[in-house]
Amino acid sequence: MSTTITWKILNIEAITSHNSLTNVVKNVYWQVEGFGPEGQYGAHYGNQQLDVDNIDPSTYVSWDSLSSDQVVGWVKHALDSGGSGTVATIEQDVVRIVEAEERPNRKTGLPWE
Questions:
Q1: Domain coordinates of the chain in residue numbers?
Q2: Tens digit of pLDDT at every position of the chain (113 positions)
């Protein structure tokens, strides 16, 4: 079975002023979703505190210039710090959840979207 894995950013907490920088991303709420070929679904949620004390001002990305892909990259980097393999473990857990659901009996989404 092939499972499609998607990382999403659900919300961001920022420090309005830190070391002469503004709106510095500190905490990211994220979700990893998995979808199987027949509608199977699995998810893993979490939040990640980011290290704001070692930001290089020359590479700082302003709040208005942030992208979802960039923030997902920061989260994955923080989760895997020290070579922990946490990202792979989370994705494997989601795949296991999807594969365990033999017959999908639910759907996800919002009826107004």
A1: 4-100
A2: 689 999 999 999 999 999 999 999 999 999 999 999 888 899 999 999 999 998 999 999 989 899 999 999 999 999 998 888 999 999 999 999 999 887 666 677 888 87
8 Å CB contact between 8 and 30? yes
Q: Which tokens sit at 97?
A: 């959840």
- Compute the distance between CA of residue 72 and CA of residue 67 in angstroms, rounded to an integer: 9
- Global pTM reads 0.85
**What is the 3-class SS of 6-46, one letter each residue?**
EEEEEEEEEEEEECCEEEEEEEEEEEEEEECCCCCEEEEEE
Q: Which two tokens stand for residue 19?
A: 């070391």
